[in-house]
Specification:
Blueprint lengths: L42 E7 L3 E2 L11 E21 L4 E6 L11 E4 L3 E6 L4 E10 L4 E12 L6 E4 L2 H16 L17 H14 L5 H9 L8 H7 L2 H11 L2 H18 L18 H22 L6 H19 L15 H10 L7 H9 L10 H10 L3 H11 L39 H9 L2 E3 L6 E4 L8 E8 L2 E9 L3 E8 L4 E7 L5 E7 L2 E4 L10 E6 L3 E6 L2 E10 L24 E4 L5 E3 H4 L1 E4 L14 E3 L9 E18 L11 E6 L10 E3 L5 E18 L8 E3 L1 E6 L2
Parallel strand pairs: 11-15
Antiparallel strand pairs: 1-8, 2-3, 3-6, 3-7, 3-8, 4-5, 4-7, 9-12, 10-11, 12-13, 13-14, 14-20, 15-19, 16-17, 16-20, 18-19, 21-25, 22-23, 24-29, 25-28, 25-30, 26-27, 26-28
Length: about 750
């Protein structure tokens, strides 16, 4: 959500952690038991660590004030540390390179004493980089950072044959961790608010990504006192299958279900009012069919309330709950079905959110699914990163998982290749469908992004069926993916699934923990012809159940799966037959093995003087100087703020000596729409005589890669040759690659 709100934060340092790895940044052998629920929220101090890149070699001093920009291995909570030599009374500034931090956290400073000394920031901030502002004459000897965070480990994992989805899972996991501390945050920089809507996917993912210590925050959210005036629609998103019942299936925590039953019933029976303008369900100012959406969520919540009533001794309420659900179901189609989709009188075109929720709620019977798919879910993309989770799940329920994966890839397309290690508040930095406005103040680490839960639970198909994972299922919906390895850290122990698909075999290797029963399904839709199924080498199905294997029992067959029930252990199921392997998605590009030239000594100039970028309507003044494009941080950059894009603008780099290179990459991910409309690149050995263009082209959204025949030169200049009446030209980081 985008609502400034400051909360008090606690930092409790505990044990050292192992060296952080890129993106996830943690590895741990085993996990400890969850902390008692009345204990302080457990925090971890990772100790002082080295930055992965510094904009200057140390020790360093300058005769004028200067900045040292330092890159972290990933987005995290950190405190900057510095060792320096100075005279007394100098002021050192500690900043995150993330400008949104300034919403909540004032810039921290320290005053020097005379001589050699060490200083550390007292308060944590978040970001992918640190900026030290150093006075003239001060010598910086060393810098480090201290990461702190919620005391849990990354115990789950997901890996498939398409690296785009691997990147998304890892970025979603990193995002989820960054949004955990004393409670689930929407984001750690601008707000740190405990919205129920943001908390829903954050809680969901914590059970699939982290060890059991993360369950403390989930329990706190479940037991949190409801606030009916605080975005009541978000309460509906949480009080049903996706929040309360999901928590119970993962944890088996019956005490919490008993504690929340009466407040939940009161909220649904007495408090919630339909049509409340504060009933927020999603971002965007385009079509949002709130009437249909809230009806669906309310129906889901009543279904969950019934299940909780049955397990907590409130059977007397079931008749009332059933009557309320029956009343909704009886009138739903007559009120909202328009022949090809669901739509209320509030809007004049169908909404992908509302139609997806009709499927998820079970109010849209299967006979309507194809019409909804054809006329809405393949035509509309109003849902934000947050709500697209329910569109994705509806598509998979309808058997359209191939399109669900394609939609996920297309909508996250600008987040996948960028250097940022977390997922953003909005797709492409717009509120929803580019109808309203580009939101420069949206966070680039927002907890409501759900790829980790969607890929592990829905695509890999690993999900709890009974409380505490006493029974769970492995029902893959892999679509065009040909291999998936997933580990889900259930409360019974790790569930490990390794899926491989060839033209003739569909193999699922399962390691199932003690105390659990697994239902394994071989998906019929993955085959054009399914002949036999074996388990651990023995045939158990050849059109019907056949033979027996100790520990494995036939569990029926439906339109989607041939199913088997297993005891704990290691099992390998193989379906034999014919399988199509064609994919509609372009493959993920192979990992680049290129050497970027070192640029610490380079200088940059532009066609306009350095200026200040008035960020967020001038609330936060940001340096937009040319040197920022070379400092190694993708959150600091150069912008031409004098005019929007026009022919003749230029950006020039002096590499200080002749270099051999064949590619330049311009990254303006942070200002995503500021890519050069058109460009021409020239080179020079003296900065005066310039070559004819060695490359021309049009900028790409976020990252523009410019390749050309190998050049040897000291200078290069990028000249704008196009026009854009709306966007300025920005370069937030520039890299040059060594010609082989």
């Amino acid at each position: 959500m985008h609502r400034p709100h400051k909360v008090s934060l606690s930092i409790a340092a505990s044990v050292f952690a192992t060296t952080a790895a890129l993106l996830l940044g943690q590895a741990s052998a085993g996990e400890s038991a969850a902390a008692p629920q009345d204990a302080p929220v457990p925090m971890k101090d990772y100790g002082l660590q080295e930055y992965v890149h510094l904009s200057k070699d140390l020790p360093h001093t300058e005769p004028k004030p200067w900045k040292l920009v330092c890159t972290l291995p990933y987005n995290c909570h950190f405190q900057a540390w510095i060792e320096l030599e100075a005279a007394a009374g100098q002021q050192i500034r500690f900043d995150s390179s993330n400008p949104l931090v300034s919403y909540l956290t004032p810039t921290e400073t320290c005053s020097t004493t005379a001589g050699s000394q060490i200083h550390e920031a007292k308060n944590w901030v978040s970001g992918e980089g640190a900026i030290y502002t150093i006075p003239a004459g001060v010598t910086v000897k060393a810098v480090k950072y201290r990461q702190t965070g919620y005391d849990t480990t990354f115990a789950g994992s997901f890996e498939c044959n398409d690296n785009d989805y691997n990147i998304l899972w890892k970025k979603a996991a990193r995002t989820a961790y960054l949004c955990m501390r004393d409670h689930f945050y929407d984001c750690p920089d601008r707000e740190r608010v405990g919205f129920w809507g943001d908390g829903t996917p954050e809680m969901n993912q914590c059970f699939y990504v982290f060890d059991s210590k993360a369950h403390r925050l989930a329990r706190d959210l479940v037991r949190r006192e409801l606030q009916p005036k605080f975005y009541p629609g978000q309460h509906l998103e949480f009080l049903g299958e996706y929040g309360l019942w999901f928590y119970y299936l993962q944890s088996g925590d019956l005490d919490s279900m008993k504690a929340i039953y009466e407040p939940t019933k009161t909220f649904l029976f007495d408090t919630y009012q339909f049509g409340n303008p504060r009933t927020w369900f999603d971002w965007g100012k385009e079509v949002k069919d709130t009437a249909v959406t809230e009806t669906c969520f309310f129906y889901i919540c009543l279904g969950t309330l019934k299940k909780i009533a049955l397990i907590t001794g409130h059977e007397a309420d079931v008749a009332t709950i059933d009557a309320k659900r029956a009343a909704i179901k009886k009138t739903f189609d007559s009120q909202y079905w328009k022949g090809r989709y669901y739509m209320s009188e509030q809007v004049n075109e169908p909404d992908d959110r509302a139609n997806a929720m009709a499927v998820n709620a079970g109010l849209a019977e299967p006979a309507k699914w194809q019409a909804i798919y054809d006329n809405v879910l393949t035509k509309k993309t109003g849902a934000s990163c947050f709500f697209d989770r329910w569109v994705f799940e509806a598509l998979c329920t309808m058997g359209k998982q191939e399109y669900a994966l394609l939609r996920m890839y297309k909508r996250y397309k600008t987040m996948i290749p960028c250097s940022f290690t977390t997922l953003w508040e909005h797709y492409d930095r717009w509120w929803a469908s580019r109808i309203d406005a580009f939101d420069e103040g949206s966070s680039l680490n927002h907890g409501w992004n759900p790829p980790a839960i969607l890929l592990s639970q829905t695509i890999a198909g690993v999900s709890a069926l009974a409380p505490g994972w006493s029974t769970y299922q492995v029902m893959p919906k892999e679509a065009f993916l040909t291999s998936i390895k997933v580990v889900v850290p259930s409360v019974k122990g790790n569930v490990s699934v390794d899926l491989h698909k060839t033209a003739s075999e569909y193999a699922i290797e399962l390691i199932s923990p003690a105390g659990s029963t697994a239902i394994v399904g071989i998906p019929k839709g993955s085959f054009t012809k399914l002949d036999t199924i074996t388990v651990n080498g023995s045939t158990i199905w050849d059109g019907s159940a056949k033979g027996s294997v100790e520990g494995v029992a036939w569990d029926g067959e439906d339109a989607g799966y041939v199913k088997f029930k297993t005891t704990p252990g290691t099992w390998k199921f193989v379906g034999h037959g014919r399988l199509p392997l064609a994919t509609p998605k372009p493959p993920a590009p192979p990992a680049a093995h290129e050497d970027a030239l070192e640029k610490k000594t380079w200088s940059a100039t532009a066609s306009v003087p350095d200026g200040i970028f008035p960020f967020c309507s001038g609330r936060i003044p940001l340096d937009a100087g040319a040197a920022n494009a070379l400092d190694g941080d993708h959150w600091t950059g150069w912008r031409d703020l004098t005019e929007t894009q026009h022919p003749g603008q230029w950006f020039e780099v002096d590499m200080q000596q002749a270099q051999k290179f064949d590619k330049i990459v311009l990254d303006n991910t942070w200002a995503l729409w500021d890519s050069p409309e058109k460009y021409a690149v020239s080179v020079s050995n003296d900065g005066s005589a310039w070559s004819e263009p060695i490359a021309t082209g049009a900028g790409q959204l976020g990252i523009t890669s410019i390749s050309f025949p190998p050049q040897t030169a000291r200078y290069f200049r990028i000249t704008q040759t196009g026009s854009n009446p709306k966007y300025h030209w920005s370069i937030y980081e520039l890299d040059v690659y060594l010609a082989k």
